[in-house]
Structure formats: structure tokens, C-alpha cells
Amino acid sequence: MKRHHKPMVYTLTFLVLLSGFMFTKPEQTSAFSDQVIQQGAVGEDVIELQARLKHIGFYNGKIDGVFGWGTYWALRNFQYEFGMEIDGLAGQTTKDKLTQVTNYDREKVQQEMYGTAPSGGNNGGGESTPTSSVNVPQGYSNNDIQLMANAVYGEARGEPYEGQVAVAAVILNRLNSPLFPDTVSGVIFEPRAFTAVADGQIWLEPNERAKEAVLDAINGWDPSGNALYYFNPDTATSGWIWTRPQIKTIGKHIFCS
Amino acid sequence: MYRWITIALLTVALISVSIWGYYTNQQKNDLYVQAENEYQRSFHELTYHMDVLNDQIATSLAMNSPEKLSPQFVDIWRISSNAHANAGELPMGLLPIHKTEQFLSELGDFTYQTAIRNLDDDPLTEEETAQLEEFYQQSGEIRDELRQAQHLSLNNGMKWMDVEQALLNTDDAKDNEIVNSFQAVEDSFDSFTEGAPEDTSIGTRTKDHSYKNVTGDDLTEEEALEEAANIFGKENEPDWTITTSGDGALTPMYSISYEENGERGYADLTVKGGHPLNLLVSREIGEKQVSLNEGYEIAADYLSELGFDEMELFQSSEYDQIGVYSFLYEDNGVRVFSDAVEVKVALDNGDITGLTANNYFKNHVERDIPDPAITEEEARDAVNQGVTIQESHLAIIDDSQGEEMLTYEFLGTRDDATYRIFINAETGAEERIEKMTDAEINYDSVI
Predict the structure, then answer these.
(1) Distance of residue B436 Cα from the nearest chain A Cα, in angstroms
(2) How much is the ipTM here?
(3) N or C end of chain B: smaller count of CB under 10 Å?
(4) How far is A18 from chain B (nearest CA, A)?
């Protein structure tokens, strides 16, 4: 929102308020659940928040149900214009104000989002409806995550959860190491780097757990202790790998630097 | 007699041929997998490079100083030529991927020309900025289409070797989904696309070095188990397993795990002082009952119980019933990016399911933070005029050598994009500019 637009917003708000008082009885649309909505949240409340902010001209992005930066700035500008505490959180006061000055037509918004009428009742803040966007960690796409999940599942599906996170962390440690390629794809498909790639097991369908393990690794978890290599002592064919300083053993894998 | 010799010879011959056939087939399969892997690498690298290009072009739009812009253009030029090479490695035969390639080569020419120019004497003209904006737009469209193709190929286990076969054997290549997706990339140039979606994430990485903040006496295994019960929030000790790290570990640690009612817990504690480096609890997570904000309160309380003081929420994100929170240490109002702690909360019942304090224990020390040499106003002047500054902080970040420096951190917007910009508080130099990652289209909801 650029500064010189603000008078326009005021006028607009005034008009909206006016028309609200003049022509319609304020509709019962308090669909917001009682959660405080904060940046990073996903779901119906966020859809409503975005739709209301858009209605009043503060938000001009896509209504996608993910509380991202665009929604954050829109909310802060709204709070600024209405003389509220500017914290970027949609708490009770903010939600009340929004409900008071805007209208929200749930069916219409959902129609626009999905091209179909909403399914299920208006249960407020329910999680049942999939949003049209999803959160992704800074600097990664969902496909990067999927590709890594494939590798983790192929390499470590029988391992305990922390062993799967550790394998994902090794891929990321290689990404950051000058000794290895600097793309996820380059690290994974590097010839002879991973057995699951060489024998085609990477193309097994990964489960949710493998995906979660990858997300944890991207978000900073590294149970491998900064390892660049790991091997299964029962099947390792290279003698060289035994010369690496070992960090720890998780499940069947020995992780080393 | 001859009959038996013949039979024996023929049997030997048959066995040899079978063995030879088996190995040949094996070899063929190995080669097939290898070739397929090469294609896959090129394809996934191409899409990754398009992602990076889109970000880098956006970042260049928010840059101000020639000292930053010139290397940025060199980078874009390098990545576009890599992407171009990736595109060339795909077995697309005569299929038209001209427009993608044309885009890459135009972008390469533009950035090469501007990178070698002296931007101090001869800054970007308005037309050139407009051209950059157009590149940004186009790269976003190609990126989205490529992501869609990549999503399809990952989900359906598509093989490039099959694409190649399809292209070789029939004229009717239209049925192949990858081929169709590429067609879509081409078409996207002429069509209308939606505005970029928004969003955020978490992640602070620092250079590797030893742990600076691991203090205290060495713990015995029993003491470590007690400490673990404490951080897991368990009163009874289930069947714990405890192991000690090897020589390669940066600091000696105990790894403790348990399995109980379908739940698996794992923690790394330093031998010295018993500090928690990692904690992970894995279990099925039920329907969401706790909001992201309530989860934040839980995470913050947990951190203060563990004795992490002055931690402020930096970012939060909700992924499928899990809240992930990143906290930064705040030293008298200065955010220290390297002293980060991440916490994971299950949003079904509000249990803590993860903690990682690796960075905190590696980097956190008592700091003597100098006063900034320039004022915030002066720092603001160093930011690109096209960026509207929305929020500011003082922050300590690591430079490329891993040394800490004091900066002004500005969060600003330019059109739909949000940037994090760091201006050195000593010299006024633009130190780092990041474009915040947007939420991504949920391809599963589209299809």
C-alpha cells in the first residue's frame, strides 16, 4: 500500500460503512473462530481475513488461505489506518473491527478460489478445505522437498525417524559444502552418491513421514551432527568410507564427516 | 557317444549364452538407469535454476549499489547459462522449447552486458529496469509451468527414457504428459497469469565451526537420562536407549531415544553440561485443535523453562497440523540471527515435538555490541528507492567469512514482493538482500 493511496482508502472505507448502514442490516458473518491469527497460519480464518482485507482495499494479492507477507503488510496497514496497535496479529479487537467494517461472502470467495461451491457447513476455522497455496520454507519449492523425500524414502525407509531426518540433513550439508554440487538435484543424482538412485529405488512413492523428515531437516534439524557421508556397515563396499571420522550411529547407518 | 558330446556341448553353450545374456541385460539396465538419472538431474536442475533465477532477478530489482548489482548480474548470467545447458540436455528432440531457451539467452545477454559495464558511471536506465521487471514476470511464468510439469512427473513417476521412446517411435507425442507440460510452458508466454502468491518460512543457517557456548561439567549417562526425561517432559522413564558419539562429532554428545505407544522420541545432549542440541518426537498427529498462535505460546514457555532467555519469535509457519517456530536471541533490542532456536509443536494437543538449538550453542556468546556509526535515516538512504520500507530492526548477521557484523535490517516491499535488506551499520554498505519466498500454489488442489 503506497502512502498516497490512503486518503482513497479512507473515502472507500467511509463509503462502505455508509452503504452498510444505509442499505443493509449488518449481516451475521462472524465466521472467524476465536484464534489469534498470526503470520504463517493456514486455513479458513486466513481466507476470511484476506477476503475482508481485500474487500476494504488493503490487500491486493490472491486469496489463497496462507497468511504470508502480503497479508501481513495488509493487516498492519489496516491496524495503522484504524488507530489500533500495529502488531500484525489478528486478535479479537482487530477481527471485530474487520467484521464491523467489511462484508464477507464465504460462498462467493470459495467459488472464486476453487471454481466450485464450498463443501461442508460453515464451521468456522475448520481445516477440512484444502487451501490453494501451501507454506514452503525459505528458498525451497515443494518439488525440491518431494525430490528429497524420494531420496530419503529410497535410502532410509526402514530407519527410525531421526535416521530419516539425518539422511535429509546429509543432503543439505552436501549442498552447503564446496566438495559437492550446489543444487538438490545435482547432489541427489551425482553418480555413485546414493545407492537408491543407482538401483532405481528412488522412484518408490515416498510416505508422509519421509516428507516430514525433509521439512525438519530444511527447518534446521540435523541429528547427523553435520555429517557429509553415511554408510551401512553390513553392505558398504568401499574401504575408504571406514577411514572417515565417525560421528554417530543411527539405526543401521553410521554417519561420518 | 557323439550324441552325448553334442548334448553336453549344447548345454554348455546354452548356459554360457544365458549367462552372457543375463549380464548383457543387467548392463543394459544399469545403463538405462544411469541415462535416466542424467535426464532427471538435468530436468530437476533446470526447474531449480528457474526458481533461483526468478528470485535473483527479483532481488536485483531491490538492489541499490553497483557493488551489489554487478556481481548479482554475473550470478544471473551464470545461472541462466547453466539452465540453458540443462535445457539442452533434455531429450526433447524437435519439440519446441525455443521460447524457454530464447528467454534464457536474452536474459543472459542482458545481464552479461550490464555486468561488464561500469554501473557507477553508467547506472541502469529506466528502460533497463523495465526490461528487468519483464524478465522477472516471464521467469515467474516459466517457473510456475515448470513446477507444474515437475510435480506431474514426480507424482506419476514419469521416465525421460519413455519420453524419448515416445518421441522416437510415434509421431503422436501428444499423449505424453511431460511433452504436454512443456507445451504449456511455451503457451504460457502468450497467456495471462495470476499474480504471485505470497508467503514466508523459516531458516537460518550459519557456517560450521565448533560449539562456542557449551559449558558445564561432564554428565554421566544417568544424569543425561534425567536431563532427557526433563526436556521430553516425561516423568516415567520409558525404555531409554543411550549411545555416545564418535570421534567425528564437533562436540561429544549423548544420543537418547525411546519408543512408546507408537511414539518415537530422540534427543542429542552435549556430554558437557547436558545442553539439548536436538529433540525430535515422531508420531501420528490428529486433527488440529490448537491454533498457530497458541502453539507459539507453548513454544515460548518451553524455551524459558529450558533456560533460553531473551528469545523473540522470528518466524512461524503451519505445515499439516504442525507449527514450526523460529526464535532469535535479542541482545538489548538487537536481533542476533546466528543465535537461532527452532521449536516444533503438534497442533492436535499442543505437545512439543521438536527443538533444535544447534546454532544457539555454536554461536551464542556474551557480545559487546558497538553503537551504530550511521543513523537509521542514513541507512534508509542506502536502500533502493523502489522499495517501500515497512519495518526496521538492528541485527547482527554473519558476513561471508563467518564474522559477525552489526546491521540495520529493513523489511520492505516492491510491488508484490517482500525483501529483507541488511545495511552495514558501520559503513552503510548494502550487505545482503533476500527476497522472501512466497507460498506456493498447491498443485494437488489444482489437479
Answers:
(1) 7
(2) 0.79
(3) N
(4) 30
